[in-house]
## 1
Amino acid sequence: MRKISIKDVAKKAGVSIAAVSQILNNKGQRFSEATTEKVLQARDELGYVPNSAARNLKGRHKRLIGIIVPSFRMPFFADIIQSMQASAPSDVNLVFLGSTDESLQDAIFSLVERGVEALVFGRHIPNRAEVNTFLKKRNIPYLVLDQNADINAHDMVQTNEFTGGSMAASHLMSLGHRDIALILPNNLTDNMRQRRAGFLDTLSTANLTPKTIITTTLSKHGGLAAVHQLIQSKSTAAFILNDEMAIGVLRGLAYQDIKVPDDISIIGYDDTDYAEFMIPTLTTIAQPVWEIGETALKMIIRRLDHPNLPLQTEFFDVKLVIRESTGPVKNTKGNH
Ligand code: RIB
């Protein structure tokens, strides 16, 4: 179906192309209200959408930045997207794509074809060398955050994952827990490996190892599916590597009428906005997601403005948010 052009709008409104262009670009003050109304009505009836590439050619340059995340549904990434959209300057357009490992190359191609001038990767890049060569050849800078914790060759925003895992272990140990389960996703990304390392390292300072290690999918259903093994392990606490899985675990324990934290303490990771609405409210390690998104966007725009800048890295701390889902270990002898 032929794309509606500005010429079609002018013809339908009975005015010149120049008049349509000026009115639709808020420069039509010299036209009467009736003319403006006719143009807007013709535009809406025809469903005309200005061609941004053509507009860029006319010097009203809006920079287009692509952001690739693994999922739009996971609250962590939804918040990243929201924070970028909310902080985008008026001369920058953003386009967001969700992609799996398998569809990542296609996602990159499609964004490059749409004319993105820079990319932000909020998901793991399996074939980094290939992606790097492809983007370098096209002079498209990119920034990595979150799941690409160990790339040092690019602009990056990181959080202190190791410390986050360590905080979770310290918190549970401070409550007297020694039989602590670790629940983590099947496909462990760089940042989650660091989270796990911090947790194991802190356990080891007390000569502890996890009572059990359960791998599942990075989702609420994944958490739910882990509950049987968690109960079987007789752990008194569990560190779960993101809030979504932790929410699934809470649901599964509730189905079995197992009380949190009386029977078992649960700590998650992210502090997405669900955490404080759970029953019980979820103790977790808070990532500054909003700042991560805003900062990542600022940095990649700075890279576009100054291509030869030295490497940019931003490092954010995480923090322990204690709520109802963690409590002192129950003394098996019955006295607290
Ligand atoms: O909830 C999504 C998880 O995957 C977060 O912990 C984030 O760090 C991402 O890696």
## 2
Amino acid sequence: MKIIGTGSSLPKKVVTNDMLSEFLDTSDEWIVPRTGIHSRHVISDEEIWELGADAARKALEMAGKKPEDIDYFICSNVVTEYMTPGLSCVISSMIGLSCPCIDINCACPGFIFALDIAETHFKAGAVKNVLIVCAEEPTRMTSWQDRSTCVLFGDGAGAVVLTEGCNIKGIKLHSEPDPTKIWQKRRLMPTPYITKEEEDVPLQMKGREVFRFAVQASTTQVEALLGEIGMDKSEVSYYMVHQANLRIINAIKQYLGEPDEKFPTNIADHGNSSSASCTILLDECNRKGMFKEGDVLVFSAFGAGLLSGAAVVEW
Ligand code: UT7
């Protein structure tokens, strides 16, 4: 398969670090050196499905495809107000898709897990065109009284349209299941039979452990994947790394011994938008005209699960 269209959409509200320090015991001086984040786009009166639909329309337009050309739609999302139907159905109804659609919840590496599902369908000869939308509102998962989590996140949606081709050179997925490292819980509807205590818990994260996992999983997977497909790092044009923390990206860069210019970032004014992060970065770089045919893009993302994934894509 081959990427032929990208799109993204961001909430209009921009929240700077100084705005956070008006109601939170934090500061620009703490946030910037530890994360690289200066500001983030935060959902206010938009709906996440509006951003997802907007990103999808832009990707379809760039790809020169109509909704009826799409054979399969995968939506990556962690939380939305809709418990059912899936966000994929809500976005489908907005953009006029009638093909099968599924939601996946693989947290930050969701885009790479979605690529893997799409590739399986292409290899089976079951599809000609696939749409992926990663639409996330992690700012609705955190407590805005918890300075250790809410400063890190931003919202948004990114989309890609894929068609037939041989441009996915390899995908590697990894799982270290442990729901105590990053988690959030919601209370479900009560019934006469539920006697156990249930509560709404905002996002909890063991930051340092997740940091270590991110750097280790990313570097190990990228090196292993390049080795498996017989590609040297010198052939890689860009590393499209999940925008969770600039220090994580710098540690990966240092470990791989690759230069700054191969690591585009947008974390400074986006924060961590979970699975949308890689797709928003991809669209922004693409629309700047950074990629030329034959360029090799290495995607790497990691997060709750713990899950991580890497993919090597030829442009
Ligand atoms: O998408 C994937 C999921 N998440 C990640 O990839 C995140 C990975 N982890 C990280 O990025 C980093 O661990 C953080 C940015 C979350 C935290 O950085 P850290 O250097 O590991 O800081 P820390 O959690 O060890 O906290 C150090 C201190 C603590 O104070 P004490 O206990 O030493 O007195 C915190 O209470 O900094 C304090 N602190 C803050 N202070 C001001 C934590 N958050 C803040 C804040 N402002 N926003």
